[in-house]
Amino acid sequence: MSRRPSRLDAWPRAFDPAVELDWGDPVVSRRLLREHLDQTHDGASRRLRVIDEHVPRLLRLLPHPPAEVLDAACGPGLYAVRLARAGHRVTALDVGPAVVAHAQRLARERPAGGRVSARVGDLRALAERDRFDAAVLIYHVLEAFPRRQQVGVLRRLGVALRAGAPLIVEMRLRPDQDEGRISSWDVVNGSLLSDRRHLLLVETVHDRAANTYVLRETAVFDDGTTSVQQTSSALTRFAAIPALFTRAGLRVEAVYDGWSRFRGTALSESVLVVARRS
Ligand SMILES: C[S@@+](CC[C@H](N)C(=O)[O-])C[C@H]1O[C@@H](n2cnc3c(N)ncnc32)[C@H](O)[C@@H]1O
C-alpha cells in the first residue's frame, strides 16, 4: 500500500491487515519467486544445498515410498520434487500462483516429476479428507498465520490425512534477535515492493510478551512516496506445542530439535513436530 512517509506507523503491529504480505497476489508471488530461488540467502526458501541435506531426514520421518504425500505451502516445489524422486507421489499446494507455476515447471523437467501434482490452493480452505499417507508443512509456515487460524489450518491438515498418518510441521520457536527492534536500510534494484530501484528500510521487531515477530519492509521511491509490506509470526512456546496440536485433533508423537534426530527442548530455536490424528 502506498503512503506518505509522515503517515507511516512508527512501529509495526503484528498481523496488521493493511500491510501484511498477500502471498496469493500474482505480482507479489512473481517477486517472491525470485527470492525463493536466490542462492545467496535463505529468505523465502532455503538454499538448495540445505534442502538436499534435509531431504534424507524427512524421508526417515515419512512412511516408506511410495506414499501419497501432501507438501502444504510447497513454495516453488523444491522439497516436493526431491520427495517424488525418492518414490513418493506428492501433491504440492501453495497459495502463490508464480511459485506453483515454478513447481509445475520443475515437475515437468525433473526425473520422477510426473509424480508431483502442483496446484494453487489456500490451506485455510483445504477440504480434502482421508486422502494422504503423510503431510509436511515446512519452513515456518504455521506461525505466519494469526494464532486463531493456526488451529484451523492444523485441523484441516489432520482431516486430509488417513487415520494414523503423520503430519510433520517445522516450527520456529524464537527469532534470532532479542526483544525490541533492529533497523537497517539499503538501496536495492528491486524488492517484494517494487521492480524499480529504491531505498529499502527493513525492521524486525520481537515482542516477547506477545511472542510475536514482525519483519517490516518500507520502500521509499524517488517521488517521496513509500510502500510497506510486512510478514508477522505468532510463535508458540515449546511447552505449549502439545496443546496447540490437541486443539486441532492431533496427537504429538515427537518433537525434534530443528532437523536433527535429537529431542527438542525449551532452548530449541526451531523444531520438527511429528503429529498424528487422534
Ligand atoms: C517460507 S515459504 C516456504 C515454502 C516451502 N515450504 C519451502 O520451504 O520452500 C512460505 C510459503 O507459504 C505459502 N503460503 C502462505 N500462506 C498460505 C496459505 N494460506 N495457503 C497456502 N500456502 C500459503 C507462501 O505462498 C509461501 O510459498
Description:
The protein has 278 residues and is of the alpha/beta class. The protein has 2 domains: 2-21 and 175-234, no CATH class; 48-174 and 236-277, Rossmann fold (3-Layer(aba) Sandwich). It has 6 helices and 12 strands. It has helices at residues 26-37, 48-61, 78-85, 97-109, 147-160, 241-247, and strands at residues 2-3, 68-72, 89-94, 116-120, 134-137, 166-172, 180-188, 198-207, 212-220, 226-234, 250-257, 270-277. The strands form 2 sheets. A 7-stranded mixed beta sheet has the order 4-3-2-5-6-12-11, sandwiched between helices. The protein has a 5-stranded antiparallel beta sheet with strand order 1-10-9-8-7, with no helix packed on it. The protein binds S-adenosylmethionine.
SS strand fraction: 25-35%
Give the SSE string: EHHEHEHEEHEEEEEHEE
- CATH homologous superfamily descriptor of the largest domain: Vaccinia Virus protein VP39
**Alpha plus pi helix count:** 6
Number of domains: 2
Question: What sort of overall outline do the alpha carbons produce when their principal axes are compared?
Answer: globular
Mean pLDDT: 96
Structural class: alpha/beta
CATH structural class of the largest domain = Alpha Beta
* Largest beta sheet: strand ordering: 4-3-2-5-6-12-11
Please describe the biggest sheet, giving its number of strands, its sense, and whether it closes into a barrel: 7 strands, mixed
Please name the CATH architecture of the largest domain. 3-Layer(aba) Sandwich
- In whole angstroms, the N-to-C terminal distance is 43 Å
Q: Strand tally, please?
A: 12
